[in-house]
Amino acid sequence: MSAQPLHEAQAAPPEAESPGRREPSRTPLSLVRPAPRKRRRVPFVLFCVALVAVAVGSVLVINVSVSRTQYRLVSLKAQQQDLSQSNEALTEDLNNKRAPQNLAKAAKADNMVPGAQPGTVDLAKGKITQKAKPAAADDSGEAGEQLLLSAPLTPQEQAQAAAAKQEARRAAQQAATDKANGTAAASGTTQAVGDATGDTVTRTSSDTAVDAADGKPAAGKANDQKDKGGAPRFTPQELNGGTLPGPQDD
Amino acid sequence: MGTPTGSPRTSTPHSVGRMRLTLFLVLLLLVALMVRLVWIQGIDPANAAAAALKARTTSQVLEPVRGDILGADGTVLATSIVRYDLVVDQRQVKAQYPRRSEDGKTRVTATAAEDVDKLADVLGLDRAAVETAVFGEAGKPKKGYSVITKGITPEAKDKAEAVGFPYLQAIQTSERSYPNGKLAGPVLGFLKNDVVTGDSGSSKEVSSGAEGLELSQNAELSGKEGERVYEKGADGVRIPSAPLTETPAVDGKDVKLTIDPDIQWKAQEEVMAQKKRFGAEWVNAVVMEVKTGRILALADSTSMDPNDPGATEAKYRTSTTVTQAYEPGSTGKLATFSLALQKGVITPTSEFTVPNAYKIDHETINDSLPHATYEMTAAGILARSYNAGTVQVGNKLSDRERYDFMKKLGLGTQTDIGLDGVNPGILVPPEQWERRQRLTTMFGQGYTATTLQTASILQTIGNDGVRIAPQLIDSYIDPDGTSQAVAPASSQRVMSSKVSAEMRRMMEGVVTAGTSTKMAIDGYRVGGKSGTAQAVGAGGGLTEHTSSFAGMVPIENPQYLVVVVMQHPSGDWQNWSEAIPFKEIMKSVLAKYSVAPDTTKPNPYRLFVGKNQKYAW
After folding, report:
1. pLDDT, mean over chain B
2. How far is B505 from chain A (nearest CA, A)?
3. Rounded distance, CA B237 to CA A248, Å?
4. Distance between B349 CA and the closest CA of chain A, angstroms
């Protein structure tokens, strides 16, 4: 299309240069309508657009669905965490209530007494070979006495006791650091202060099996380690060039 | 223009040269770059790639879950529970930060001070302590890892997180819990924390058993650590496309014991009551299944609560039934009489003249109470526990014979029940027995034994003369649930079946007409042996005593045995009796295991020679 007007323009000057002369056989020029190419392009363009739309749309849909599933996963994981937590808590409660000391206490509270000698029935002979004896009333033997074996602490009481111990330990450490005032090493002093509750305040790696005085059950599987002074110590691997170990991928 | 289309000489020689030069230089640079690239990445003499990989690669330890300790019926005696430590990075804490309001509609500015107060309230901690932990102390450098509180329950952690303090981190830890408190506490033991420095210089807190089963079974209970090796970037986030190798942790095995928690409870209650009753230093008891040697209870009057071991004296953090060896006293006569019957030097009805004091080999052996001289059978001597008669019986045996037999019965020998610190007792070889000691060993003095060893002797006599070593551990349960039963202990015939029957009949006489008539239980035939040994007191002299009773039921075919030992009781020895604890414990065992009452009548031997059996003590 662009070629034609030029053609015509180029065709024009020769006529202008010699106006009088006439070319003998000259093709009459007429405007030719261009071929209807527009109609063939529309579907193609539309097709392209549609393709792009579909591609983008499907990516969007997939992304949205993945995100939604991811959210669902997170929420289900949280739910699972919740449920296993409450399961553990209930199991702890149950184990505590099941302890023989607590069962005996509950039985006593219901005015139950230990059974006396049971009777025996001989099934082969079909008769009672031993008569059952009635249970002794509360006044005789052990039944009237107090239960001696102490019941275990409930999980809540246990947690409170642990918190109290930490408090005492912290207070002792505080007192020690106040007293020492930078002369002796922190570890030496805290060891010297010793027990508020019968436990040694700090542990070093040297006093291990023999020193059972600090028999606090294992609390430790903390992901980070710290030395006795409270300042953290991380390996260069953990830090990986940073200042804090990165979050654990779990 | 006018130039015809022909040779394309459109540039001057100078331009061509410059272009060629430029091209050459560029190519040179490219080649240099390539060489360098090949050098760094291909040949890599400095191992830069390896170093980078090393820096990226982290290995994370996957902690195994420690196994449980279970009772015979599956009761959980020791387990690990999830707890949390609340920590904060003091360097990150800002005084104010934006947050969503409670209804979630607007953004509000919250202050750290307020949140810290709320946190202290919710956790029930001292406000000042929490503030110090979060904000640090004045004049001190800020810590990256400051502990607010340790070992809180998941519920408390949820409440703490609900406060919304953004710098709070909750780190999951594991804590050992003993749900039954003092029940079988000394047998279970407890854990300790050690700081272990690895080869790379990193230190780690490792928890392992300190006493009891936690210590002796630590290898089975601990399991094996797993490892997760992955690559992470400098910001600490895992690189997803990098290789990840994971060796899962192998959880520890559960240890199932033969201990019956109900019987254990009853036994502990009874020995505690007995200690109060007689003001003793300690009282312990062992309950055992006669036919299998399985230990149903190891009871101590002072028991440690493994949740708080520090509250109990060191001596009672382990079970006295296996750690405390003492001179057993008259229960030791069982060994002497069994051997005498086995060797055929006496029969249960052999006759002896038993004075109050017996002179032998420049030594005088006295009985506890002055009595007239009696004509008694061997059964009678055992029933009345007369030392003067016992040495006559024992003197028919050589020292070496008695020593060997006592060793066979487990005296002076280590008993392996899966616990550490078991006391083998002291039994010196007969060559070292001094003049008096060779006589006193006939009636249970001059050597030491633990309550468990006495129980084992009784088990041998009760099990038709076949000794089965005591067993405490029933099985190990893998994390996937498969149970591996511990192979039953080897059995060894120590005395003949006939001797066992004779001994049991003699022991019945102890309860029907001898020293232990208070031990009779309605509906059952009881047999046993009492013991009152002299013990060294605080001053160093023989001022104290060890009083005991070992009995089994039903005596004609024993199922269960109970040994109760009381150390250093106070008051008049004639008042001392283990009747109440023995009967109460034995009755609860018989009831629980539905042992049918006896249909046969007691059938002891005659104690005295002749028709008259009634003689004063």
Report:
1. 91
2. 23
3. 8
4. 33
